[in-house]
Amino acid sequence: MGHAAAGGRPGRRRMVVVGGDAAGMSAASQARRLKGPDALEIVAFERGHFTSYSACGIPYWVGGEVPGPDRLIARTPEEHRARDIDVRLRTEVTELDLDGQRVRSRDLESGSEAWTGYDHLVLATGARPVRPPLPGIDAPGVHGVQTLDDGRALLDTLTTARGRRAVVVGAGYIGVEMAEALLNRGYEVTVLDMAEEPMSTLDPDMGRLVRRAMEDMGIAVVGGARVTEVLTGPDGRVRAVVAEGAEYPADVVVLGIGVTPETGLARAAGLPLGAYGGLLTDLSMRVRGREDVWAGGDCVEVLDLVSGRERHIPLGTHANKQGQVIGANVGGGYGTFPGVVGTAVSKVCSLEIARTGLRERDAREVGLRFTAVTVESTSRAGYYPGAAPMAVKMLAELRTGRLLGVQIVGREGAGKRVDIAAVALTAGLTVEQVVSLDLGYAPPFSPVWDPVQVAARKAVAALA
Amino acid sequence: MGHAAAGGRPGRRRMVVVGGDAAGMSAASQARRLKGPDALEIVAFERGHFTSYSACGIPYWVGGEVPGPDRLIARTPEEHRARDIDVRLRTEVTELDLDGQRVRSRDLESGSEAWTGYDHLVLATGARPVRPPLPGIDAPGVHGVQTLDDGRALLDTLTTARGRRAVVVGAGYIGVEMAEALLNRGYEVTVLDMAEEPMSTLDPDMGRLVRRAMEDMGIAVVGGARVTEVLTGPDGRVRAVVAEGAEYPADVVVLGIGVTPETGLARAAGLPLGAYGGLLTDLSMRVRGREDVWAGGDCVEVLDLVSGRERHIPLGTHANKQGQVIGANVGGGYGTFPGVVGTAVSKVCSLEIARTGLRERDAREVGLRFTAVTVESTSRAGYYPGAAPMAVKMLAELRTGRLLGVQIVGREGAGKRVDIAAVALTAGLTVEQVVSLDLGYAPPFSPVWDPVQVAARKAVAALA
Q1: Which of A361, B12, B18, B296 has a 20 to 30 Å separation from A169 between CA atoms?
Q2: Cβ-defined contact of A416 to B66 (cutoff 8 Å)
């Protein structure tokens, strides 16, 4: 029976979605595919101006490679509305009343508030950039890059900035991608990170390869640099970043320190959160302990199938899959999200960086003993034009020989090779089994032993 | 105890290798890594002029993309000899005496013959191009492309040919790669094939995409064309190819009809051969029923892990792995070659073509019932520069949902994506599990759903 507060036709249910990006709108779209508007009413609240956009595309929009923001929008509010999804933009959900099965929302333009009842609640509130409470951090010219609105604001700053010096704080994926974007815009770029080496999602030995390549591109990479202050000029705008006592002049600052799950509403409502502050769900993406509340995307923690631990991995690809699963289940079908193996791929100009599974520190942390090997190979047969070097690091468990993780740093053709290891990790293959895999070979595509297999051979030898 | 005929030090064994390319020399090298010359003597007979070369690289040498033939040689006879492997070039093994544990060889220069005893015999005799007994097939200007000597002879013809018309007979991997090579050399290229569509290692609907792309490149592709005669001019050289009553003028003809295992010696010695004429081995690459005879490379049949049948798949990557396994076992270590899933990747100019697992006809042949779906996707996020279209076809078993095969036709970034499916096939994943895989995603590398997963989603829906 439909929720009384919905006030609709008898038997009609209402699905309320909080957050109109990847997870939320995938859930809405998939539920709509399975159930028509007579059976299911769908209301989606989004506090921003856009729906279903690719936040991952923002660095390329800022860098000028992709026209934006329209091209980054997979589906507009109008397109969703045409499919009977009631999208309410610029409307923020301010409270969850789980016992009453209703949410309170506020129209950000008019300030008016309302309660909306639900039968199924989908929390897809995303994540927000970490913004340490430093002096000057909110000065004009300091930007996060999480939403299309953030991208637009950053581009406005780039258009009006007097100088051409950029400081990127944080050398993770967003940081290195923004370094490329700013380089493409003609900026002199300095990247500051607390860790010694960039890309701390890799082991430091592989991060070092990234640093060297970035330095060769003309990007200054400063490790071991904790930012303590943002200095402003007489006009109140950013003029420099201070780290470890040194001043780094800046006409624009981009924060790429990472994100944290946006789960304030969920916390206030008493929903279960994990160690990283993300919502905890079951395999069907139902919030643990609640029959009628679902969650997906950057606001949830996911099961890491290799370590058996929950992690927070904000990535559009997971958000889409999780939304799809929620939509299937709410729509009367069936779907699960079994977990992740921690695959990520990124690039800085022509450098490709990929990882999957566990780093050395992750493996140690969960009590695994392992061997780690690194090899140099090439993307194509050595004699074939364009064969580019790549380094592949591989971790394998002692005794069992099970593959635990792979990290790749190289040029064209390096990044997506990590998928071989991602599938092997999911299937629980040993490095010996990886050696025997029947992978695509022809000189323009691979050496006769794929680089991942070259690493696996070395791992097998190291385990013997 | 060492073989008496070896006449060497007591306890010293002798490994005799027949065939000095990928499988044979990988076996020799790996055995040498494990056992020094005091424990193991290694003799390798090769009837040609080269060892350890990449036959797969010949089309790129002919096409002028790779200087040759030196660059195609992974290890020269001198390099092998420096590691105490006694390589005897231009020496053909003419008889196997299995009861006497010896082989007879003939020096192709002097004609002298000799018997050599062995403790371990490794048959790595490769394959030879199919050359149907048609009138004119042996005329000057008609070339196979199996060995470096073949490549050299073809290049000589290209240098001296009067005209610029080439006919390629056979539209499999070698055929389409040679079509590209000849196009690069400025030839007008016609490809003739008995099948209606090129690349019969794909289903015809995917082959059709290849034909259209080849035609767009200016290659004439004639399907349903059985060659009946090669016509020669007054100088005795090829001048045209006749198929289905039509004459195709040709200054050069390349045969890419396929290859057949070179197992005449093995057959004469009574060794077990399969339905395709290849040697049958166990998982350690020992010839079935023989303790002291091993075989690997293009002369063996391999177990297809998806169909459970033996197949003949002549590919350098298998040859290298099998050689490695043989060398490990002869050298006192342990290794197996568990089988293949039928992965292959190729390109014609910018077109990438890949397959793994079963085609529709393969699945039917072994009694599997399945659903087949095809999707169009892109290599990168749709908005990212260089996003190229690709078609992905996927077969999944009815009821179980097990992945059975994938075929991909696209541009840059299409080919090696087949590895995702190759690993999934090896692990026996269902299409539902493929949908959930944690694959590398970032806009320059993939849409948010990898094309293989887009196909898997459609397969899941088709199975429901």
Answers
A1: A361
A2: no
